[in-house]
Amino acid sequence: MSKNGRGVRKNLIPDFIPILGYLDDLVITPLGIALALKMIPTEVMADARHQADALMQEGKPFSHFGAILIIVFWIMICGATVWSVARALGD
């Protein structure tokens, strides 16, 4: 992990190499996730799964504010795209 909390991702094979460039994305990334999951102690994973099951019994969490924020974002993106295309075709 880097200092800002995000993992530093390195490509073993650069993505611009056809087919082989995506091989590390298809193979190495899932292996890294599996390794990270195996490193979590079993009691911690069991506790996390128990908490998740308890939350799901109460019903799926839903944020109206988050949903509205995402919808407004997509409307803005669609509007900007339509405006941009209309402006390009109008010239």
Number of domains: 2
Low-confidence stretches: none
Hey, roughly how much beta strand do the residues contain?
Answer: under 5%
In terms of structural class, how would the helical and strand content be classed? mainly alpha
Number of helices: 3
Q: Helical content, roughly?
A: 55-70%
Task: List the secondary-structure elements in sequence, H or E.
Answer: HHH
Instruction: Please give the number of β-strands.
Output: 0
Radius of gyration: 22 Å
Taken from the alpha-carbon principal axes, the silhouette is: flat
Largest sheet: none
- First and last CA, distance: 49 Å
Average pLDDT rating: 84
Helix-strand blueprint:
Blueprint: H1 23-39, H2 42-57, H3 64-90
Structural description of this entry:
The chain has 91 residues and is mainly α. The model has no long low-confidence stretch (mean pLDDT 84). It has two domains: 1-60, no CATH class; 62-91. The termini are far apart. The protein has three helices and no strands. The chain has helices at 23-39, 42-57, 64-90. 66% of the residues lie in helices and 0% in strands. It is flat and about 65 Å long.
Brief descriptors of the model:
flat, mainly alpha, 91 residues, 3 helices, 2 domains
Task: Summarize, please.
By secondary structure, this protein is mainly alpha-helical. The protein has three helices and no strands.
